[in-house]
Amino acid sequence: MAMRWFAVPALLVTLVGSTWAADCPALLQGSLPKLHAKESIELCQRFAGKPLVVVNTASFCGFAPQFKGLEALYQRYKDQGLEVLGVPSNDFKQEAKDGAQTAKVCYVNYGVTFTMTEPQKVRGADAVHLFKALAEQSSTPKWNFYKYVVDRQGRVIANFSSLTKPDNPEFIEAVEKVLASGS
């Protein structure tokens, strides 16, 4: 009889897991290692059904002060469901050689609390799946701090260049648009 009690939770996990996989947009398939941590971020589990801003970052880029603006954006809208995902990359030769140094820049120097990954490839054939999917829907990052606004269904509704600051009215309008769309 005790065996059955264990079987029910396992069955529930299987059913919920398969439903979750079916509801996961292609953009959010897979996982990425969390910055300076031992765990991975299961993208579907963490972001499916949520409005999302994805940005490729670099610690030693002239646009790095945008971390403050991205953090302010996150703080302003997180209670409305907005998620921000920062993906450091050395594709433009401006990222630290190790995650510890990247973490110091993000967490200590700029006070980032939104989700950050370990450095990843964001361009070309070796790009991680997330950035390949972003590029398919919009365009490849042209430089660091390229921003993508993604709706709750995993569709890119807007993308912005490095020159667009996080407090830019057009960027804010795109974020507010995905927040307003409840479906």
UniProtKB/TrEMBL annotation:
Signal peptide span: 1-21
Membrane-crossing segments per the record: none
Keywords carried by this UniProt record: Oxidoreductase, Peroxidase, Signal
Domain Thioredoxin: 11-180
Entries under Pfam families matching the protein: GSHPx
Family the entry assigns: Belongs to the glutathione peroxidase family.
Protein name per its UniProtKB record: Glutathione peroxidase
Taxonomic source organism: Pseudomonas sessilinigenes
